[in-house]
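Example 5.3 — Phosphoinositide phospholipase C
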Amino acid sequence: LALKGKYDPIKSLEGDEDLQFLLDGGNLVKIRSSSWKKPRFYRLQDDCKTLWHESKKTLRPSRTFTLDDIESVRKGRQSEGLKKHTDASVEELCFSIFFKGSKKNLDLMAASDVEATRWVKALDKVLNNMRNLSHQKKSEHWIINCMRKADKNADNKMTLKELKHFLRQINVEVDDTYAEEIFKKCDTSNSDSLEDSEIKHFYDMLTHREEIDVIYGQYSKTEGQMSASDLLNFLLNEQREQATPEDAYKLIEKYEVDEIAKQKKRMTKDGFLMYLHHDDGSILNPAHKPVYQDMSQPLNHYYISSSHNTYLMEDQVKGPSSTEAYIRALMKSCRCVELDCWDGDNGEPVIYHGYTMTSKVLFREVIQAIKDYAFKVSVTEEETPDFISSMFFSFQTSEYPVILSLENHCTLEQQKLMAHYLISILGEALLSKPLGYTIPTNFPSPEELKGKFLIKGKRLNKLDAFFNKNNTIEDDSVSEEDEAADFKENKQNGQKKSKIKLAKQLSDIVIYCKSVHFSGFEHARDNQDFYEMSSFKESKAFNLADTSATAFCHHNMDKLSRIYPAGSRTNSSNYNPVPMWNVGCQIVALNFQTPSKEMHLNQGRFLPNGFCGYILKPEFQRSLSSQFNPNTLTKGPWLKRKTFHVMVVSGQQLPKINKEKHKSIVDPLVRVEVCGVPADNASKETHYIDNNGFNPTWNESFKFVIHVPELALVRFVVEDYDSTSQNDLIGHYCLPLTSVQNGYRHVPLLTKRGDVICSAGLFVHLMLIDAK
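Solution (predicted structure tokens):
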């Protein structure tokens, strides 16, 4: 109670009628199937972080889940379950709660449209409020929540036994003697329990950060505080920023919490810590957070965030296909999705992985889901000020174009229906003819294609046909070399080449992404138009990147290339995307459903520039005069040798890995990786800290030599050390080296699936300087 007023995560919503609506709760119908539709009472618990609902099971009469687990709340029959098990007439009564990770979504139905809207609005408001908290506030709330859990009898006091339980909850193992020592120091009333100001004293002792004291003490030269001049000295010498006195004044005005200090234009230690926990103190350069790159270059001058077999939720052989997989990929700002199209029952084309037991989803339902979510933005930059939440918020999608990569196995009649659905559902957003009034000679830009869908697939003729009135081409056969054939060959040693009849209606809406067979770089240069692109399975692409890197780079200066995983990756594993980016490949398609290092690198590559799914390639990958080869590194504009100094100082509130084991405490270590051209790839790690995930301190320094900084990614990995088995991942974070800020910075941490760990982070010191 002594802390609740100061650290309540939804204090800003105090008295809000939507919050009170959730606290009061109400009856909803939970829907699992056409025959399982049961009333349940739901309400938000007093901690304003946990949703409680009744259960009819004898052993578990009630259940809860935390709001932190929610990815999104969607009004209407948005889930496949609601579409399947409810009638269209109850559309406005339904809503779904979608969770992070693999947890199944919760489908609900209210008594009225007004009530359903109220639930969705109220949940969205509380979720947005929580996500908009600063990292420091999230950290404070996490600690207070652990204190509440440790207070077993809910008397707002803390006994020695409860204090030990609390320390284990926050991932700290201390011996009994030390725990008693802390307890006695705080128990000034000698009552054998901590309460009110004693708990506040214990909290202050616990969250005290000695490393911040040292840094602040070094620069606070004005009566124990930082003057604007002192702060400017810190910004110039430690953070290596091009700062001015005006910048220092602005930071004091923005982050100082003490009004008297603010009036004196000074920064207290609390204000300094606030600065370090926000955008300006983040490892990610805040200037790179919004769209900051030139978006008027031709489309092929960008890396494009791309998904492989987007419809799959799990493996490639017997896993489910779902519209939800498309929604999740698009919500991660994926800008190229794949649709494997086959003849379905009742004349309706379906999407699934051919020659396998994966389930099928209707083509028209997928197109509708893509239309609904491709350019959906539910929050604005201003609504998400914190550097963590704003870059990984569930509903952050992009306004830049989406490419629909069609793998077509349908008969003519179902192809015509595919074309009909694409045209009727996507409407004016579908690019159905070249831009301009003359035959194009180059790609349009992402800026020119905002809000547009591009179809990638086979085409019966050239784009010249749009400007040739005598063109009368009809349905015809085309060669179809695709992933299904590769997969079939891998499994059955079948024939790769096949011919399919291509419907003119489908052919006509393929504009800037015409699929063609690759017959060599010289052949492509001499015979292919700029809009004719090839897909490469990973083995072919990696071989070309090894043996013909410069030619591959030149090919990608004029055309688009798509890379996809080998058919042998039946478990939906991924290949390393970095070597493909090194040779300028734009559409490097990965299995988005599989959490892995490769997806972490993809998330890091597309983190800057508004997380919009497009990253402008370096100039040396766009200029035809370039002779760049990532494997040999001859002299050229790409060679900018840098020394990257990294000191891993400390960690904060690292989560427990094995939450089932009450006494399990992590032994954390940090690995710093650089991924780029072969000469730059390196990895170094700290020692591990015994039994402390709450505030481990390493103070270990590393040095990396970087040759091509514009292609380098930096990845921080925190693991739980285990001497007898493989280390467990605690958290990670990845970003381009060119977006790293120098100086003392906080690094957020993400789960394996890429979700933010609200309270956790690293504190590091970074310095990127010209190599001697």
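Remark. The longest strand covers residues 756-770.
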